[in-house]
Amino acid sequence: MEGILSDIRVLELGESPSVAFCGKLLADQGATVIKVEAPSGDPLRREPPLLKTLAGELISSAFMAFNTNKFGVTLDLAHPHAADVCKRLVNTCDICIESFAPNYLSTLGLGYDDLMRLNDTLIMLSITYYGQTGPYAQYKGNDFTSQAIGGFLHAVTGSSDKPPMGTVLDQMEITTARNGVIALMAALLNRDVTGEGSYIDLSTTESVVATPSQLIHPFTFTGRNPRRGGSDTNVMDGMHLPTKDGEVTLTTAGTGGKPMEVWSDFLDEPRLRDPKFGTRPGRLDHWQELYELVAPKLMQWENIPLMEATMAQGLVIGLVQSPIQVLESPHLAERGYFVSIDDPESETLAYPGPGFFIDGENTMRADRVAPRLGQHNDYIYTDVLKIPSAVLQDLHSEEVI
Amino acid sequence: MRANILQDITVLTLEQVHALPWATSYLADLGARVIRIESKKHLQDRKAGPFPNGKPGEAWWNEAGNLSYYGTRNKESLCIDVTQPKGKEIFLKLVQSADIVTDNFRPGTMQRFGFDHDSLSEINPKIITLSSTAFGYTGPWRRAGSRARTVDAACGLSSLTGYEGGPSLRASNNYMDHSVGNNVAYALLLALYRRRKTGLGMRIDLTMQETGVSAIGPAILEAQQDITRSRLGCSHIWKSPHNVYPTLGDDRWIAISVGSDYEWDNLKRAMGQPEWANHHHYDTVEGRSEWRHTIDEALGIWTKSQENKALMHYLQTNDVCSAAVYTAEDLLSDPHFTSRQFFWTVENRSVPTVGPRQYAGRPFRSTGIPMGIERVATLGEDNEQVLSQLANYSTQGITELYKDGIIANTPDAEDLQI
């Protein structure tokens, strides 16, 4: 199946994980995404942990993960001779996504007002931590501080009796990117009808707040601030419990309202039927005792057989899988979820798919791994833009490219 | 004012809980006609609240905050029993003029209803159907039940989450739900984009586990080269100082993140060059990382006597990346977010007992795509409209449907007590 976005061309400027993941979501569905990096390279390339390539080089796992299926060129946007080149790139594109501080591109003559004068069907998405306007617009930010000011640290992850603790691996940047592609698809569909481009201002901190994670409106309805914690002592419905080869989290779902009877039978532990465990408050009050009864029984199980046995009885549990266990999951293997992408210079790795199958097919492209620095300079500058080689030589020697 | 980009699109959604209603709320905001098919026998969403002042009122089924935020926001509510032959017949009639059918039932349920993709596409060959499940329609786990946090666990995110030196902890209460919701919205917009070009309908199988795994890509690659990550709480794999630090008051904190020598110099200057900070151990990124616990402790002593918001502004003027750890209340009174009009006040005139309440807005702004909440459907509010416009029912016919219990706009008498 041809990529759904195979007729769309995207220019990606900037260094935030969110703009990278946004470009990736589009590239994976077939869009031609050209990632522009400073000649010194995107700092994300050097972000540990680092993977080894066949040539013995080291490259960030995050860079590889967030830049699948893209083309890569170098261009020092700050250089006075770069704006012309950038405009020529933009003119070949339907969409420009960027993550510089508000107004930075305008100071280079590359703001939306400048670009849409050349092409009024251009769709431009600007991603910043605090948005294009407002008193904090020029504040420094990242995924961690976005979790802080976005209410996530106080209210969501972590334990009630400990300091706040957040999620890992740039979830807020990813959430921002997901909002970004929704807005971009809406803009594309709009353009099909009206013929007009548009400008989109996307804020990471607002992406954190705007979730159904029960943050703002629970406060405006009840006057109570949602706060983290609450499942730390919930043996049957929240704690992570050890098994023979990993961890598991139980639930009381699927038990027809009789969780302790059902689990007592399943784990072969009659003492679970003690009336003091019969209610949720009771289970919280006596959680240590309950833990002492449940944990040893679970230690007799390995994860996959436990999942299969509980599934067969309609019980609901969650295997706390490590990344390697996820990779080796028979379920995901049968579904064909992971996508291998070849590259002559690196080991073939399996990449996560997009999470949806269309007409039974995993739609993620496997066209190319994350580009090496400037890998497609020749292709884009010579073949596509047809910049004469003399001009290109000058751009090289002036370190514009 | 609402966008009209999808004004020609009709969505029938058999949705419950968080993820799918969140997804279809985007389409509704973009102008699609989203018809939420509700059952008076399955009102968990409407029971979930939150309720004004925490107390369900007499007509509690219309008062929950989640409805305005995503449940029935900009959507229409058709309260119909599709398990009855008459209800099923009506649903299939609606499919004729629909563009999208979405559901989040466990695999098997849609088949049992006769609403599987093949059956629906016989009625309407251009239909796009999307089922959003935990584990998908294929594979050995397709029969597994789930909760958002069990999928947090199954996708790998929870194993990576936890305090330093501590056990793994669930990564969220329902981060998975909004991740999936966002992914469903994207998939549906892709489907519409493709259908415009090809005229073809399609079948989409979207899963929460796989959406979650797609969000831990770096760890998946690392695992293939035997690299494991430790759980670090708020600490960072190489940046230091990078943590939450206590500030004035109870459970009040500030997040500070220093990633370079330049930023460390800024922080030292902001602190007034305390002697401890100028120790040569801390002159390099590696040194600061090695000594991060010592640095965290000392930095915490400095922050403890300060108010977190003022400290955030002070540090930012010194070019230090930092942010106060905000509560909902902090957000609602913050000058930046209020100046951007990020919070929307909504008053549902059909439910005066709730009154005006504030909700988070959308994080993207575009003059080409105006967004707002125009209406919040009460239970079965649009029965008459939908049935007369899309299923050719007369007033008389609709009255009979009410009488026979096929459609409703209140719970049954025995279900009125919450």
Mind explaining what this structure looks like?
Chain A is an alpha/beta fold. Chain A folds into 2 domains: 9-211 and 335-397, 3-Layer(aba) Sandwich (Rossmann fold), CATH 3.40.50; 247-321, no CATH class. Chain A is 38% helix and 16% strand. Chain A has helices at residues 17-27, 61-66, 82-91, 104-107, 112-118, 143-149, 152-155, 171-194, 204-209, 216-222, 259-267, 280-285, 287-298, 303-312, 323-327, 330-335, 377-384, 389-397; strands at residues 9-13, 32-37, 50-52, 58-60, 71-74, 95-98, 123-128, 198-203, 240-242, 247-250, 317-320, 339-343, 346-351, 356-358, 361-362. Chain A has a 6-stranded parallel sheet with strand order 5-2-1-6-7-8. Chain A has a 3-stranded antiparallel sheet with strand order 9-10-11, with helices on one face. In chain A, helix 1 (17-27) packs across helix 8 (171-194). The model of chain A has no long low-confidence stretch (mean pLDDT 95). Chain B is of the alpha/beta class and 418 residues long. Chain B has 2 domains: 10-215 and 343-415, 3-Layer(aba) Sandwich (Rossmann fold), CATH 3.40.50.10540; 253-324, formyl-coa transferase, domain 3 (2-Layer Sandwich). In chain B, the strands form 3 sheets. A 6-stranded parallel sheet of chain B has the order 3-2-1-4-5-6. In chain B, strand 7 (242-246) and strand 8 (253-257) form a beta hairpin. In chain B, helix 1 (19-29) crosses helix 8. The mean pLDDT of chain B is 95. The interface between A and B is large, with 145 and 149 residues.
The parts of chain A where pLDDT drops under 50 for at least 5 residues are none
Averaged pLDDT of chain A: 95
Q: What's the number of helices of chain B?
A: 18
Within the CATH hierarchy, at the fold level, what is the topology of the largest domain in chain B? Answer: Rossmann fold
Tally the structural domains of chain B: 2
Biggest sheet, spatial arrangement of strands of chain A: 5-2-1-6-7-8
Tell me the helix content of chain B: 25-40%
**% residues in beta strands of chain B:** 5-15%
Strand content of chain A: 15-25%
- How many strands in all of chain A? 15
**How many H/I helical runs of chain A?**
18
CATH architectural designation of the largest domain in chain A: 3-Layer(aba) Sandwich
**Name given to the CATH architecture of the largest domain in chain B:** 3-Layer(aba) Sandwich
Radius of gyration of chain B: 26 Å
CATH topology of the largest domain in chain A: Rossmann fold
**Which blocks of ≥5 consecutive residues of chain B have pLDDT under 50?**
none
Q: How many beta strands in the DSSP annotation of chain B? A: 12
* Structural class by helix and strand composition of chain A: alpha/beta
CATH superfamily of the largest domain in chain A: Crotonobetainyl-coa:carnitine coa-transferase, domain 1
Distance between termini of chain A? 35 Å
